[in-house]
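pasting for ref. prot 1 ->
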Amino acid sequence: MSTGRFTPEALPGGSQTAARRDGPLPRALVAVVSNLVEQYSGLSLGGVHGRGLEQGIRRRIQATGTAGIREYLALLQSHQTDELQRLIEAVTNPETTFFRNRAHFRSLREVVLPSLAVTDAPVCLWSAGCSTGEEPYSLAIACLDAGLTHGGRPVSILATDISRLALDAARRGEYSERRLQHLPPSLRARYFERRGERWRVRDEVRALVTFLRHNLIEPDLPAPAGTVDVLFCQNVLIYFRPELVGRIAARLATALRDGGYLYPGFSETAWYRVPTLESVRLGDCFLYRKVPAAADREAPAVEPEPRPPIRRPDSAALPRAVTLPSPPAPRAGDALAEAERAVAAEPLSSEAWERLGLLCRQARRTGEAESAFRRLLYLRPDSPLAHFHLGALFRETGRAAEARREYAKAERLLRALPPGAPLGGVTAGLLLDACRRALSQTGE
């Protein structure tokens, strides 16, 4: 990749004195770094991600022993690919844990995997943006624990990431105690082995996972279209410009088979506006299910191809407490009706109003969604989630000033929380990033 030569001295603040390690980083030079990263990867690390980018630059300046940002820019120019990879790693790969979003994995274990267990058909799961491997190994453990591999059924987990460094760590499969904090002791004993102060993923888990380097902006899919049963893509789209997000979402939908599930990040649920994806609720989480394209649904009836033979597995081959195939997941309309019944039964439940607001928003019932989130704020005035979703509603309906007001309130509340604080399946830090991105896009 050729990006041309830069001359830091020609930029404001380009002197080494102005760019010393302990001083503020000149915006013009940070912008040069941001442009280099975006040209290389498509990732937009400026704007609302600017603080994270500056922190990443400082860490890489220290790690490389360079004297300041001017010298670091020269290093990027001379060893661009390797060092850009390390910088991207420093900015976009926060530490994660196994089974991080417990609501997602609960729905996977209780509904999705049992529905896949009733035939002998191969099963494919894709972890897009797999980072250092905790998510794809969690998916593999869930499949093994559900008995999906019994009887020789092919099960594969595809794990992709843009960072070679993250993929190298994922392939090693060794983790600290902290990364396993959400893992039940029984699963730790069965699927990990102690290696000094660290834990190594056992070979039966590793055998299910294939790691590949892949950038989501690339036109080619890492798996054949229509073959993925379950796709996890969480807190990845926040790093791309809005004009790219729609194309990436459509490409991800193409990878799914009809009836396959896509698990988005909490702050990304409204970004998958793709005709072939329908919003569904499974347990306590919201996700998307692939439906046939309109042309396919309206095509003349033809004799269907024979389906794979149905088998009735022994109870030991199914997850505990599951003996029959699970019924189809509820459609968005069914979930809405259930949420409306919940708020009628418990009108003082903030959780019920939050769930209703999310469902109404996904169903494009804007007025009802706004009412639900306002009721949520009446019950829980310090809820950053309520302010964030109201801001999103106002932004989508052209009410920019009101959107900025709500996003600003959410940002203020989120700044007071530790970055790693959990908020309904996402961390406060990630929601803060999404909030700042939205603020930058709504303008003054």
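and prot 2 ->
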Amino acid sequence: MEPFKTLAISIFLALTLSFCGGDESNSGNSNRSGNKSPVISNMIFTPSSTNQFSGGGSITVSGAIDFIDSDGDIETVIIIDGLGDSLSIPVSGVDGVTAGTILIDVFVNTTVTGDFVFRLYAVDSLGNESNTLIGVFSVT
């Protein structure tokens, strides 16, 4: 099995989301029916690397992404691994929230070494996609 696929499966199975809201408006593009696309930014996660077999084969990585969505209708976060495999994660608790932070805790498989690239974006209720953020997690 490709090393990233092993990592990605571990990430996908353990993703949890929580939210904090705000009131900022979206400067995103209008797409379907005048609805604006969400905008995500400031992805951070820690640690960004670890040693092989840390935590007995898996560790928790904590991260956050900020979002702005003037329509307050983000429904899903999508994560895509280096092989193009994706997982759609339903988002709850943000209906009507126009700005905030999505907190992410994931379990990462540390049995395979490498630099593992992933892409992440949000989708609103009409299918409008946000910009894409790219991250790299390293196991050495």
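The chain has one domain: 3-139.
The mean pLDDT is 79.
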